[in-house]
Amino acid sequence: MSDTTAAAHESRNLARYATKSRLYQWHTHAFHERIVEWVQRVQPASILDAGCGEGFGTGFIAERVPTARIEGVDVSEGA
Questions:
Q1: Which residues, in sequence order, are CB contacts of 65 under 8 Å at separation 6+?
Q2: pTM of the prediction?
């Protein structure tokens, strides 16, 4: 297992994105879509995702709002 994979495996947050529960997947996707709606309305030049975990949400926003520079940070080394 690589260092990155091991670190992600240790994070409790990872289970939120790796779940097979369709309801939980829908909820997480709807949450990210709402954030993207807000970001598109404001149209910032840059975004800081503080507490980004493994960066799943950061990546989701970056794909949908390519005009903004986005950085993610997290205090957890596992994330």
A1: 36, 39, 40, 47
A2: 0.70
Would you say the C-alpha torsion 49, 54, 58, 62 has a positive or negative sign? positive
Structure tokens at 58: 């950061």
The pLDDT tens digits along the chain (79 residues) read 444 444 445 566 777 777 788 988 898 889 999 999 999 999 999 999 999 888 989 999 999 999 999 999 999 877 7
Q: Are 46 and 68 in contact (CB under 8 A)?
A: yes
Q: Is 72 exposed, middle or buried (0-12, 13-18, 19+ CB in 10 A)?
A: buried
Query: Which residues partner with 47 through β-bridges?
Result: 70
